C-alpha cells in the first residue's frame, strides 16, 4: 500500500502501518468476495487504490474528520466511501447502509476482519431507514457516492442529518445538469447549498465534486416518500 500512502500524503493524510495493513486486508477481501458476488468492476490494485480508496478520502481536503462525528454512508455498496474514511479517521462513528443484503454481509466480514469499533452495516433502503426513529436526524454527516442524482439523493440522505449537520454527496463533474432541481429539493428538505468544491485525485486527472449541504431545519415529516418515489418523481422537477 506504498502507493496509497504517497497519494493521500498529498492531501495531508498520513496513514500509519496499522492503517495501511487494514487497507491491504480490505483490498484482499474485496477481490476474494468479488469472485462470488458483484461488488465492484474495479479490481486492479492500482485502480482500487486510486478510484476507491484515495477518492473516498478526498473529502478530508475540505472537511475536518479527525473528531468523533457520526457519519452515515447511504448506498455504500462495497463500503465506499465509508470504510476508507473509518480506517483513516478511526474516531468517526460510522453507519454503512445498503439495500442489498449480500453487500451488507461482505461489509460485516470486513468490519470483523479489520477489528473496527463504532461501525455498523445496516441492510435497509434509505427511504425506510430515513423514517426509522433510530436513524432519523441522528447524524452529523451523511455522505454518498454513485447512488442517484442530486435531487433523489437529497431525499435519501437529508432525513438522516441533524439540524446543523451536513449532507455531502460525492459527485461527478457534470453537476450543472442536476444542480437546479437538486437545490430546490434540498430547500424542501430543510437544507441549503453552502459550497461546491471541485478537485482531482492527486497524480491523476480524475475529477471529483463535493456539494456541501447544510441542514438548516428539520426535514418535513412527509419525507422521505415511500420507497421508489424519490427516484421516479425527483423533488424539484416539474411533473410532465
Ligand atoms: C453504484 S453502487 C455505489 C456503491 C458505492 N457507494 C461506491 O461508490 O462504490 C450503488 C449502491 O447503492 C445501493 N442503493 C441503491 N438505491 C438504494 C436505496 N434506495 N437505499 C439504499 N441503498 C441503495 C445499491 O444497492 C448499490 O450498492
- Element-by-element helix/strand order: HHHEHEHEHEHEHEEH
Oligomer: single chain
Q: What is the annotated CATH architecture? A: 3-Layer(aba) Sandwich
Largest sheet, in brief, is: 7 strands, mixed
Helix % is 25-40%
Please count the beta strands (DSSP E, at least 2 residues each): 7
Subcellular location: Cytoplasm
EC number: 2.1.1.-
Keywords: Cytoplasm, Methyltransferase, rRNA processing, S-adenosyl-L-methionine, Transferase
Protein name: Ribosomal RNA small subunit methyltransferase G
Please describe what this structure looks like.
- With 240 residues, the protein is α/β, with parallel strands linked by helices.
- It has a single domain (2-232), classed as Rossmann fold (3-Layer(aba) Sandwich).
- Helix content is 37%, strand content 22%.
- It has 9 helices and 7 strands, in the order αααβαβαβαβαβαββα.
- It has a 7-stranded mixed beta sheet with strand order 3-2-1-4-5-7-6, sandwiched between helices.
- The chain is globular and about 50 Å long.
- The mean pLDDT is 96.
- The structure holds S-adenosylmethionine (SAM).
- The site of S-adenosylmethionine (SAM) has 16 residues, from strand 2 and helix 6.
- S-adenosylmethionine is lined by residues 75-77, 80, 97-100, 103, 125-127, 145-147, 156.
- Specifically methylates the N7 position of a guanine in 16S rRNA.
- Its main location: cytoplasm.
- It is an enzyme of class 2 (transferase).
